[in-house]
Amino acid sequence: xxxxxxxxxxxxxxxxxxxxxxxxxxxxxxxxxxxxxxxxxxxxxxxxxxxxxxxxxxxxxxxxxxxxxxxxxxxxxxxxxxxxxxxxxxxxxxxxxxxxxxxxxxxxxxxxxxxxxxxxxxxxxxxxxxxxxxxxxxxxxxxxxxxxxxxxxxxxxxxxxxxxxxxxxxxxxxxxxxxxxxxxxxxxx
Length: 189
What we know:
Elements: E1 2-5, H1 11-22, H2 29-39, E2 40-41, E3 44-45, E4 48-51, E5 57-64, E6 87-95, H3 104-119, E7 123-129, H4 136-143, E8 147-153, H5 157-163, E9 177-184
Parallel strand pairs: 6-7
Antiparallel strand pairs: 1-4, 2-3, 4-5, 5-6, 7-9, 8-9
């Protein structure tokens, strides 16, 4: 397994994997291109893929650079550990079902954090799907140093109503909760 920057030769596979893991209409080409744009700063791309020995996607992570994403009603900046302009955003991650539990998610997260630090970010925020099987998303993010900022109900409902997203649990009317969590980046000495 290798971790590589997310480039256009992986776009189609990333979209398929995102929709398989997160639900139909979760990601399309326009959305992915926007994620790559928001994740690239100072010529550095903070979005990554994990590929097997045949260069097939087995996981990915999209991440936004600090100051290149919008703070919305699902954010609680007055509780964040750093100023808004130093906060990056961990947008999306998915691991192929057959590759889950092999430590791929933490490796993708680490790769993104390394680039985010180079871009000048001091912390990263995520909205984690609390209804993921076994609450795995929150568990893995907590293990990586994430701390809970807030819990948001119906976080993905607007995506269902406006963009046709179909949640793998709730269908076309998602009432899942999001754990707003932050990781403070430790600067390597």
